Amino acid sequence: MNEPRPIPRLKTPGVLAEELHQPLHRVLYVLRTRKGIRPVATAGRLRLYDRDAMQALRAELAAIERRQSRGGRKGGA
User: Fold this and answer.
1) DSSP, residue by residue, the chain
2) What does the alpha-carbon distance between residue 73 and residue 70 come to, in Å, rounded to a whole number?
3) pLDDT digit string, tens, across residues 8-29
4) Is the pLDDT of residue 1 over 90?
5) What does the alpha-carbon distance between residue 18 and residue 6 come to, in Å, rounded to a whole number?
6) pLDDT tier at 4 (50, 70, 90 boundaries)?
7) pLDDT value at 2 more than 60
8) In the chain, what is the straight-line distance between the N-terminal and C-terminal CA atoms, in Å?
């Protein structure tokens, strides 16, 4: 008998922002401007993201912080 697959844990942008300790506006900016970070599902109007999206988001936020610490506030949120 086939084992049931685990239900994926999907998160809204607000939950992602909270877990990453980032302002919601910054998370929304990155999600809107990085074409590689896409929602895997929707629930009504809510966009839902998986673990891979969270890792990509974390990497993008870290890159923005590195750029800001090197040369001021160019381009980031």
Assistant:
1) -PPPPPPP--B-HHHHHHHHT--HHHHHHHHHH-TT---SEEETTEEEB-HHHHHHHHHHHHHHHHHHHHHSSSS--
2) 9
3) 789 999 999 999 999 999 999 9
4) no
5) 24
6) confident
7) yes
8) 50
Q: What is the pTM of this model?
A: 0.80
The residue type at 42: T
Phi-psi region of 48 (alpha: psi -120 to 50; beta: other; left: phi over 0): beta
Q: Which of 24, 21, 11 minimizes the C-alpha distance to 77?
A: 24
Q: What is the DSSP string of 39-60?
A: -SEEETTEEEB-HHHHHHHHHH
Residues 6+ apart with CB under 8 A from 16: 27, 49, 53, 54, 57
Give me the residue spans of the domains in the chain.
13-66
